[in-house]
Specification:
Number of strands: 18
Largest sheet: 8 strands, mixed
Strand order of the largest sheet: 3-4-5-2-7-13-8-12
Helix content: 25-40%
CATH topology of the largest domain: Aminopeptidase
Number of helices: 7
Oligomer: single chain
Length: 289
């Protein structure tokens, strides 16, 4: 294969991810993706088979291992946006259609990524896909699914292109709900079409600090169309936040205008004061949510 996987947009699915493979089947049903190549790994890649398919300005890469462990692709991907189509697991079994970006706030890399490293967060694409899911929810009459987002978590983190996950979950039942998977395939294709046509960035992006993993405070701000979605650091990672991580959250939220949005009730006072001191020292703007 060539030294680069080059395209305007890149969708990545895994054969170990049933939801992703179901989404892939609908992508191929909607558009004629032509097989580009089946190739063996480059040096340093997991010893599995890889397939690459193309439709117009979009490539579809199929892995045989989990997408969260794909940092090894760092030197091979050249694209404007990486979209991981994936399953979501919820211990409570909550039916959900979700978007989020990736990053590791601490040192636990058991779920991919590199320690204390954040990926590039495509704020416009994240926000637009969230609202596309809400629109499609009406069209598909899938009101038993919760449409939401997650805080920044898991890998990959090292890829040099903005990356986002679009997921359905939270159990094997939802991963095989073909209606939900078809909805997300349509969202992905509409997102790519709209980005290709030129979406305007009219709002600042929020970099969320505080609250829980499913970020209810920031969802409300998103629904009110006050902000675009950037990185979110939930309260359980606040002890990890330092100069470098807060600077990364700023630099790696892709937006012309942006601001740190602090969930005052969702952040312990001692951590809130410490984080604000760092932001002030770094001269990064912030406000309360």
């Amino acid at each position: 294969m060539s030294s680069k996987i080059h395209s305007d947009y890149l969708i990545i699915v895994s054969k170990q991810d049933q939801a992703g493979m179901n989404i892939k089947s609908f992508l191929i049903k909607r558009k004629r993706f032509d097989r580009v190549t089946t190739f063996v790994p480059e040096e340093g890649w997991p010893e599995k088979e890889y397939t690459l398919e193309k439709f117009e300005n979009t490539l579809l890469l199929t892995l045989e291992h989990p997408q969260i462990y794909s940092d090894y692709l760092i030197d091979y991907i050249d694209t404007q946006l990486i979209i991981f189509a994936s399953k979501h697991f919820s211990a409570a079994g909550q039916k959900a259609l979700l978007v989020h970006t990736t990053g590791v706030w601490g040192t636990d890399i058991s779920h991919g990524g590199r320690a204390k490293e954040l990926a590039l967060a495509p704020s416009l694409a994240l926000t637009h896909s969230y609202f596309l899911i809400k629109e499609k929810q009406k069209e598909y009459d899938l009101y038993d699914y919760w449409v939401g987002l997650e805080a920044t978590h898991h890998g990959p983190t090292a890829l040099r292109s903005p990356a986002m996950f679009i997921e359905t979950g939270g159990s094997e039942i939802e991963w095989n709900d073909l209606k939900a998977c078809e909805l997300l395939a349509d969202v992905i294709l509409d997102l790519i079409s709209d980005l290709s046509s030129g979406l305007e960035e009219t709002l600042p992006a929020m970099i969320g600090i505080g609250g829980g993993h499913y970020a209810p405070t920031f969802i409300r701000r998103l629904d009110a169309k006050k902000y675009l979605l950037g990185h979110i650091a939930p309260k359980f990672v606040h002890q990890e936040l330092d100069n470098d991580l807060l600077r990364q959250a700023w630099d790696k939220t892709i937006a012309t205008n942006k601001i740190f949005l602090i969930d005052k009730k969702g952040t312990k006072g001692v951590e809130r004061r410490r984080i604000i001191e760092i932001l002030d020292r770094l001269e990064l703007p912030w406000t309360y949510s």
